[in-house]
Write a structure and sequence with these properties.
about 500 residues; globular; binds nicotinamide-adenine-dinucleotide
Length: about 500
């Protein structure tokens, strides 16, 4: 054994014994003792001011009147979580998943009653799916080992995350966000959609009560009881808010990007479907119905318009009719369009613009059918009708259980119109085809975050396809289907020349 290696081994043994508190060493070059670690609960290491144990924050279980109080409480909870470690993160994940499932029926009902959009059965189903959201086990450090030692890259928390949730899936988005965000060691403050805020506060309170009971952490997920644009601004500005997660339409994405804070934005979509003549029309029809009908088409990934090769269009529509969808003729479609959209004339010679009538968003097919002047069997999942490519039902993210069908002459035209109708949101697109060249061409042209082949849109979130679930799909900012790693800072720790064991 060389002298260098002998010295090295003696040093390592001495250091290990020193750390174990055994003063006995076999070397004269005694290693300096490890520094005493700072008390864990005092500081998170960031530059923001330390939170005090403010008595006004006690007993609220996450529900606060102001963004300031909520952020202060969340900062305190973040420091507590830091002290309690991975075991507490795991407990939080377990609690949120178990309570979402246990309360799915009750919470689905209160969300449905408050928002009056979507379908009760699907609101309940969405809460039962929270168990599929990835948690603590998702975070595995990356390691490198080589001649110069070992390097570890760890996924570490930011602190308080400010999160904005939509009216379309209030408790499901909030619950999935808590699993992801807290699994990564953060705490969170929500500004929910005002029309879905009461149900969100019920869930937040229940989660915090259980988390406090099991871990002693009181306000790991906070919410502003009466959210507003002012509370959004206060949340974004708060010194404790380190990161934003926004799930919603174009206005809130724009507002978040203007705050100056880093924002992860799960923005709007308008997912097109292209159907060619190589696919199975029955499978395509069933997939389109189940995706577009889910929660009355409130899903941002849900099929919103179909482009189909002319010579297979009749067959596709026939299969849709055979599988529970109802076709509107042109006059019925015209009546529904007049009710569902307000068309404002173009300014200065520009194009006319359609605005979706909120009274029809997420409503049952029976409400749409009544506006169209048609009687339909009860329990009809979806309406459809033939339109041109510039129709408001194609161009707007309409979020109604009515899907427009547009005939196209060629694959190229189908892909081009799909691209145009997606409006560069880069969110989701779907194809039904067994031709790999067509599939590849569409995938390349649309460049979307999710691209589903031969299945319904939820297959893209692990529901019938491989993968994992999230209700926040970060599209304009590029993080993709959010998961615990999305809410982390990557930090590198380098040991030079030692600890590689081979
Ligand atoms: P919305 O944009 O009306 O509201 C979303 C949230 O943003 C709400 O909390 C709302 O209060 C807030 N908000 C709206 N405008 C704001 C502004 N100017 N400043 C600050 N806050 C503002 O959306 P919605 O109707 O609740 O949800 C549907 C929209 O969300 C659709 O466009 C859908 O595609 C999108 N969405 C996207 C995802 C995704 O993962 N990408 C998931 C769900 C919903």
């Amino acid at each position: 054994m060389s002298a260098v290696n002998e010295t090295l081994i003696r040093d390592v043994v001495a250091e290990v014994l020193g750390r174990l508190g055994n003063g006995a060493t076999t070397t004269t070059s005694k290693p300096s003792p490890a520094p005493t670690p700072a008390p864990k609960s005092e500081s998170c290491g960031c530059s923001v001011k330390k939170s005090s144990a403010n008595p006004a924050l006690r007993g609220k279980f996450g529900v606060f009147a102001t963004a300031e109080e909520a952020c202060e409480a969340a900062q305190e909870a973040f420091l507590q979580l830091k002290e309690k470690g991975v075991a507490a993160r795991r407990k939080i994940e377990e609690i949120v998943k178990a309570l979402a499932e246990k309360n799915a029926e009750q919470w689905g009902k209160i969300e449905f009653e408050e928002t009056k959009i979507g379908r009760l059965d699907h609101k309940i189903a969405k809460l039962g799916l929270i168990k599929l959201v990835p948690g603590v086990d998702w975070l595995r450090p990356d390691a490198r080992s080589g001649d110069h030692g070992i390097t570890l890259e760890e996924y570490t928390p930011f602190g308080v995350v400010g999160a904005i949730t939509p009216s379309t899936h209030s408790i499901p988005t909030l619950s999935g966000n808590i699993v992801n965000i807290c699994a990564a060691g953060n705490s969170v403050v929500f500004n929910a959609h005002p029309s879905a805020a009461k149900c969100a506060a019920v869930a937040v309170r229940a989660y915090n009560e259980a988390i406090y009971r099991e871990t002693g952490i009181e306000n790991i997920a906070c919410i502003i009881e009466k959210p507003s644009l002012d509370s959004f601004n206060a949340l974004c500005k708060n010194e404790f808010t380190r990161l934003l997660l926004v799930t919603g339409g174009p206005m809130v994405v724009k507002a978040a990007m203007q705050t100056g804070k880093r924002a992860i934005c799960a923005g709007p979509g308008n997912p097109p479907v292209f159907v060619d003549d190589t696919c199975c029309p029955t499978r395509a029809a069933k997939a389109i119905i189940s995706g577009a009908a889910f929660d009355n088409n409130l899903l941002c990934i849900g099929e919103k318009q179909v482009f189909v090769l002319d010579h297979v269009a009749d067959k596709l529509m026939q299969r849709m009719s055979e599988n529970g969808a109802v076709k509107l003729n042109s006059s019925q479609l015209e009546k529904l369009t007049k009710a569902a959209f307000t068309i404002t004339p173009g300014q200065g010679g520009g194009c006319a613009h359609a605005h979706t009538n909120k009274d029809f968003i997420g409503k049952d097919t029976s409400v749409l059918a009544q506006a169209a002047g048609i009687n339909i069997p009860s329990g009809t999942q979806l309406l459809f009708g033939e339109t041109d490519a510039m129709h408001p039902f194609v161009q707007e993210e309409q979020m109604m259980p009515m899907i427009p069908i547009v005939r196209v002459k060629s694959v190229e035209e189908g892909i081009a119109l799909s691209l145009q109708s997606e409006h560069n949101y880069k969110h989701t697109a779907i194809i039904h085809s067994h031709d790999v060249e067509t599939i590849t061409a569409m995938a390349r042209a649309l460049d979307t975050t999710l691209f589903v082949k031969n299945g319904a849109s939820p297959c893209g979130l692990g529901l019938g396809g491989e993968g994992y679930l999230s209700f926040s799909i970060a599209t304009p900012t590029g993080e993709g289907i959010t998961n615990p790693r999305t809410f982390t800072r990557v930090r590198r720790c380098v040991m030079v020349d030692n600890l590689r064991i081979y």
